[in-house]
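Sequence in, structure out.
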Amino acid sequence: MSDITIDTALLGEKIVNVLKTIYDPEIPVDIYELGLIYDVFVNEDYEVKILMTLTTPNCPVAETLPLEVEEKVKSLNEVKDAEVEITFDPPWTQELMSEEAKLELGML
């Protein structure tokens, strides 16, 4: 049982590293640092579910960004399947951005 926990934790880190390679096309900061990723779930079957939001409901990449996230996460060898769920509850605000992102955008 403990092996699975270690594996999913390591896989979680790998997933976060992949998420940090995906950028919002309008903001020069990755989607993880922007705070668009609300949660990452990994089950024992290495199926991943990502709960994320977009900066606005009519975001120009509303169609393509979730697909890009799914594809990149699925490309990890350990991942059997990946699904992205978009939510606007709670809505994204600049408060969700990491210090790094705020610094990058000159907000600090």
